[in-house]
Amino acid sequence: MRVEVGVATDIGRVRERNEDTYLVEAPLYAIADGMGGARGGAVASGIAIDELETGAKKDKASLADLVRAANRAVFERSMTDRAVAGMGTTLTAARIDEDGAHLAHVGDSRAYLLRGGAFRQLTEDHTLVNRMVKAGEITREEAEVHPHRNVLTRSVGTEPDVVVDEDDVPLIDGDRLLLCSDGLTDMVTRDQIQAILETTTTAQEAADRLIKAANRAGGIDNTTVVVIAIHEDDELEAAGAGGTQEGRSEVPGGAIVVPGRRPSSATVKRWAMRAGVVVVALAAVAFVARFYVDRQWYVGESNGHVAVYQGIPAQFAGLRLSHVDVETDLPAADVTKLPVYQDLPSGITANDRSDALAIVEQMRTDLATSDGGS
Ligand code: MG
């Protein structure tokens, strides 16, 4: 597997400083978008990236552990240096190996994956507006133009401890992984970002065009992007193509060779991915089925009485697909004797809950009438 990297950062058209910092040091890639005070933002993102870089060289700690260490380092500095008190930063990091990308994330910088024609956000924004979207209080469209859309609910360095989101993403030939600060996503639509990733040849060309698009749209914030393209061209790898990455201060143009993997591991990965797809598909089917089942009602029997059920009168894979909503005092045996209700044991379908209750009331009336008549 060959990993091709493009990176670009820009101050934008409005800001006086670039407070974004990035790390491109194979196999580790990261973006930090600092905030706070006159110098605080750049100090915070710089400390976070330094800590990530030195921590990764020192030990085999998990990426999330490295982010937590970065959090402590930024926090301690903000406690001891009044000039940068209260500073913080986002941190979105990816470590790439033969199994794919391992992500660790805090804040509102983002990671996206382009695979084939599908473009999806891998990270969740830790912002107030995203919380409001999830609570159903505002729509995603409203969130995009909300005056407080940049208020973070989680950041690196503002508290002694931080919760870090983690994700493992298998990568395949042709994938493009994007790490970016909000200077890009606030200015350029998701569709435009996807189009640029799809229509550029090299990762560096993609990175440069993303920055240009952000500035053309106004460039209100600093923008930083890291584009990681995955190639399965083993021939190039065998020929020793590509160079090595020299730290974060240089813009890379070359490719990085990640140690090759055995075919068996590739096969295992593909099967694992297929299994993952099947699991997701089954989960979707289960979700839709649940949605459907929960909207069905019928009248049946429970403990010898007439009862209203939510669900459908059936079982699937040994699981009941219904539960009793109301158990009445009407004896089921008496009701079933009336020809019109002989289907009671197998369930009489209703349109909704009130319809089911109306059927029960009709049974009560019919039962009383038949009793009176006999
Ligand atoms: Mg920003």
Please give a structural write-up.
By secondary structure, this protein is α+β, with helices and mostly antiparallel strands. It folds into 2 domains: 2-262, Phosphatase 2c, domain 1; 297-373, no CATH class. Helices cover 37% and strands 28% of the residues. The protein has helices spanning 40-58, 63-80, 128-134, 140-144, 182-185, 190-199, 203-216, 234-238, 263-293, 332-337, 353-373; strands at residues 2-10, 20-25, 28-35, 88-89, 91-97, 100-106, 110-115, 118-121, 165-169, 176-180, 223-231, 255-257, 297-302, 305-316, 319-331, 348-350. Strand 2 and strand 3 (28-35) form a beta hairpin. Bound molecules: magnesium ion. Magnesium ion binds at residues 33, 181-183, 221-222.
CATH superfamily of the largest domain: PPM-type phosphatase domain
Multimeric state: single chain
End-to-end Cα distance: 85 Å
The CATH class of the largest domain is identified as Alpha Beta
Low-confidence stretches: 235-263
What's the SSE pattern? EEEHHEEEEEHHEEHHHEHEHEEEHEH
* Number of beta strands: 16
Give the strand order, joined by hyphens, for the main sheet.
8-7-10-11-1-12
Q: How much strand?
A: 25-35%
CATH topology of the largest domain: Phosphatase 2c, domain 1
Q: Note the overall shape.
A: elongated
CATH architecture descriptor of the largest domain: 4-Layer Sandwich
What would a concise description of this structure say?
The protein is α+β, with helices and mostly antiparallel strands.
